[in-house]
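DM from R.C. (forwarded with permission)

"hey, sorry to bug you on a friday — could you get me a structure for this? deadline for the figure draft is monday and I only need the backbone to look sensible"
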Amino acid sequence: QVQLVESGGGLVQAGDSLRLSCAATEFGSYAMGYAMGWFRQASGKERELVATISRGGSTNSADSVKGRFTISRDDAKNTLYLQMNSLRPEDTAVYYCAAAIRVSTLLSGAGDYWGPGTQVTVSS
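My reply, with the result:
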């Protein structure tokens, strides 16, 4: 069982940066065994995939965040990150981290484990 807890959300202005973190408990020796991803859901909209990182470190990101957001992982710290730069009002959403055995699961919009989410609000 993997438990995920996001942090780092908040209220910022357009153009600002934020770094989200996702702490994984009971990752332990399985830290290298999960692909990880960030999703977001804006009010009244469907959840969308933001970025994924495979067990080997390969990354994938949505076109809407390419060049602005960077996903990374530190397995020694059992932590997943999302560095968000040049934030826009349309980035406002609840951001969730997810873990899955296969990155294809994340790319399909699903996950084996989910965090409770952290709110990011970008004002114009």
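R.C.: lifesaver. The helical segments are 103-107.
me: no worries. The mean pLDDT is 93.
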